[in-house]
Amino acid sequence: MNKKRSQQFFNALNNTSKKSSNKKKFSFSYKSDFLEYKSYLSNFSSEQYQIFDDLFSELDVTDSIQRLFAGEIVNKTEGRQALHHRYRAPLPIPEFDYKKICAPLLQQIKKEKYQNIITFGIGGSYEGPKLLQEFLLNPTSDINYFFVSGPDKDEFNAIVKPLLGQKNLYIFASKSLSTYETLSCLKWLGKNRTDKNSIVITSKAKTAKALGFAEQSIVPLPESVGGRYSIWSPISLTASIENNFMRFLHGGGLADSLVSGSSLESKKYQKLIKTLAFSDIWFSNFCNKKNRVVLTYNWQLRSFANYIQQLEMESLGKPSNIESIFDETGQTIFGGFGSTAQHSYFQLLHQGTSQCSADIIHSPRIQSPLSNAQALGQASLLSSSQKQSSDLLELTNGNIPVNLFTLPKLSLRELGFLLATWEHRVFVTASLLQINPFDQFGVAAGKTAAQKFLKK
User: According to the CATH classification, is domain 3-78+249-442 in 3.40.50.10490?
Assistant: First the structure.
């Protein structure tokens, strides 16, 4: 897109922000068997949506989506494909056939009847499996699941040391097998780790063998699967032991078929993705809302915000592209379990001066009437006009844009659909910002800096 055309888009968007009285408020809702959505996007108009949609066409984002699913090199700075979505493809692909890759190992794990399964990993190797295990909430399980991130030995001693002597399975999850945190845990475990009680999930089979892992204990992970997108891969092995993990992959695959399809249902779903991406960029670049709070109102989803934080901030936390009309890239994401958050940082949201937008996720459940009421009540209060009162202490900010997501059921299929939808939101946002959502050179720089001090 040439500079003149770019300037036309920027001017069109900028002009709409100056004539707020003439704006037609944007409203959109989406409903399927797997996900429901309602927009409460104050200060976002139908006119602005249309300008973004024109930019979407100008940048040929639909073609970018097709190239992603076709397996073309979309991570251009590293010369790689991004193939995490192939785990959830409707027809099994050998290298990404989750069931075939993991079935023998799962049978062996069930046969051994372990008391504890301990996963050592950090980043995507930690956030994804931990989210899934908390989501599954199986109180009748005979197995205890633990996750260790590894940078501090006190964490290792607190979680692992009391379990030594019991029948444990140790899972080391690291694509590169060069992560100091995970290698530290391997060292601390020492002779407690044997070929029979440990496995490693990695793309570096030779390195795994050099570290003492038997060949039958090595689970392959393709180089084309990024850490923050690895929840669909054998990295999430623990979620398969007592559950039908294929339902999770099926939910993600359904979202993929919609974002890349041409049916009427696909068009509705694609408008959902556009609504999320367009409004995120609008609020960040034109409304000074550089922060977004992600709140869940179901205990099973208490780590959802942590997972989304990595997905978005590693994917969209890049310098702006000089060819883009947008200066701001990703928003700062924070959040957590909504009911707890209401008694901590909600005061800032309701009466503070920080500028925010919000995502609220919940699943209506009969046994949780308070959580349901809180989710709907906060969505209404945050997005409503400023509360008027003669008592200044009672004034609330209002006008905080809210995306309200409702899961009809709390099952793996619905979660898979939601997480794939979030990935599509990130990819479309990145395409509009003209940045690469699949590299992470800033993370690498931080590791290099730490290594220098470690050597000292």
Answer: yes
Residue 99 CA to residue 306 CA, distance in Å, equals 27
| Helices and strands of the chain, counted as H and E runs | 16, 11
Q: At CB < 8 A and 24+ separation, what contacts does 337-343 make?
A: 337/295, 337/296, 337/297, 337/299, 337/301, 337/302, 338/295, 338/296, 338/297, 338/362, 338/371, 338/374, 338/375, 338/378, 339/297, 339/370, 339/371, 339/374, 341/293, 341/295, 342/374, 342/378
Close Cβ partners of 205 (under 8 Å, ≥ 6 residues apart): 215, 218, 220
CB neighbours (10 Å) of residue 224? 19
Indicate the domain borders of the chain.
3-78+249-442, 84-244
Query: For residue 387, is pLDDT > 60?
Result: no
- Bridge partners of 364, per DSSP, are none
Domain 84-244 bears CATH identifier 3.40.50.10490 = yes
CB 434 within 8 A of CB 321: yes
The answer on pLDDT for 397 being more than 90 is: no
Sequence letter at residue 179: T
The secondary element (H helix, E strand) that includes residue 405 is strand 402-406
pTM for the predicted model, two decimal places: 0.95
Give the side-chain half-sphere CA count within 13 A for 121: 33
| Cα distance between residue 368 and residue 363, in whole Å | 9
What's the CA gap between 151 and 251, in Å, rounded? Answer: 34
- In terms of Cα–Cα distance, which of 88, 131, 128 is closest to 420? 88
Q: Measured at the alpha carbon of residue 126, what is the angle toward residues 328 and 375, in degrees to the nearest 5? A: 65
Q: Give residue 224's pLDDT band: very low, low, confident or very high (50, 70, 90).
A: very high
> 């399809």: which residue's tokens?
261
User: Helix axis angle, 412-433 relative to 61-70, nearest 10°?
Assistant: 130
Contact 404, 377 (CB under 8 A): no
Burial class (CB in 10 A: 0-12, 13-18, 19+), 49: buried
Topology agreement, domain 3-78+249-442 and domain 84-244: yes
